[in-house]
Automatic annotation (TrEMBL):
It comes from Novosphingobium album (ex Liu et al. 2023). This is Retroviral-like aspartic protease family protein. InterPro entries: Aspartic_peptidase_AS, Peptidase_aspartic_dom_sf. It comes from the Bacteria. Pfam families: gag-asp_proteas. SUPFAM superfamilies: Acid proteases. Signal peptide: none annotated.
């Protein structure tokens, strides 16, 4: 999946650079969270904090605005179509994992259709 920075300045030149990261789909997460690697690589700025509850306690996390895009795998070496998802996302810092940089939450998943198969594979589609 791809992440690009959000710029609230509507008069600024738009930077469409999208950085690729591994993501984990988490239907139990209300909000998408990102690692420090994403913050550093994309150059995201903190926008504030928000309380986030987990099974143990409520903690305050830094918030970031960014855009999310997904491109499907292709059967050949052709360039896949890029799909941007909606408006800017208000995500949170979510710690670091060696397996993924983005935890894709229901704030994004609910904008599309998720199908999970018994073998662990899934399809995530979005309306045209």
């Amino acid at each position: 999946m791809g992440i690009r920075a959000f710029n609230p300045d509507v008069t600024a030149d738009v930077d469409l650079t999208c950085h690729e990261f591994n993501a984990l789909v988490d239907t139990g997460a209300t909000r998408t969270s990102i690692s420090q690697n994403v913050v550093n690589k994309v150059g995201l700025e903190r926008r504030g904090t928000m309380p986030v509850g987990n099974v143990k306690r409520t903690e305050h996390h830094h918030t970031y605005h960014f855009y999310v895009g997904i491109w499907p795998e292709t059967q050949d070496d052709s360039l896949p179509a890029f799909f941007g998802i909606g408006n800017e996302i208000l995500g949170i810092d979510g710690g670091d994992s060696r397996f993924y940089d983005v935890l894709l939450g229901m704030d994004i998943i609910s904008q599309g259709c998720l199908r999970l198969d018994l073998d662990g594979s899934f399809e995530l589609g979005f309306p045209d």
